[in-house]
Each structure stands twice: as C-alpha cells, then as structure tokens.
Amino acid sequence: MQVNNSNLSTQVISNQQQVTPQQQNQQVAERERLQNDQQNSREQQRVNRISIDQNAIAVLDRDREAQQRNNTTYDAPSQRNSRAIGAYQTVDNLERKDSVQQLLGVDIYA
User: Using one digit for the tens of pLDDT, what is the confidence trace for 10-26?
Assistant: First the structure.
C-alpha cells in the first residue's frame, strides 16, 4: 500500500489559499483587537500595581512631622565643656566679688 503525501500537501495548501478578502480583513481585525486587548490588560496591570491611599499618605506625613519635632536637639555642651564653663564663671564671679568688696569695704560670703 502506497500513500502519496504530495497530493495531501497540495490539497491543504489549496484549501488555505481559498480565503476571501473579507475573511482576511476579518482575521486582521481580529488580530488587531486581540493585540489591543492584550495592551489594555498590560496597562491595567501596571495601574493596578500602584495603588495610592490618601489616608496612608496623610498618616505618614503626620508621623514624619512628629518625629522631626521629637528629634529637635539643642546645642548642649559636653560634660567636659560644662566644667570648663563653670570654672570660667567662678573666676568671673570672684572678680566681681573683689570689686564689690573694694567698693564697699565689706566682705561678701556667697
């Protein structure tokens, strides 16, 4: 038994070539519609990935402002510098006491 493949392939090719122009236009339109649908679904997925909650943003802003208020630090000298400042103030106070003592002739114990 012999099978002739050449006849089958020509029949398949000839069947595919018998598409009318209207059918071709319909196929092209169908492909374009599918491409547009795919593009729209991709764009929708991109939009869905980014969701913005205005309440969450407001809460984050309030938290950031509160944190900035709590983080406010004042320039405080170190312990070593504080001792040095105290020593200079003591010397200054001694000079004032001496000047008052000389002016009034009275001993001041303070």
Answer: 554 555 557 788 888 88
CA angle 78, 80, 83 (to 5 degrees): 110
- Beta carbons of 85 and 77 less than 8 angstroms apart: yes
Pull the structure tokens for residue 30.
């169908």
With 0-12 / 13-18 / 19 or more C-beta atoms within 10 angstroms meaning exposed / middle / buried, residue 100 is middle
The b-or-e profile of 67-87 (16+ CB within 10 A means b, else e) is eeeeeeeeeeeeeeeeeeeee
Tokens of 26: 């319909």
User: Model-level pTM?
Assistant: 0.28
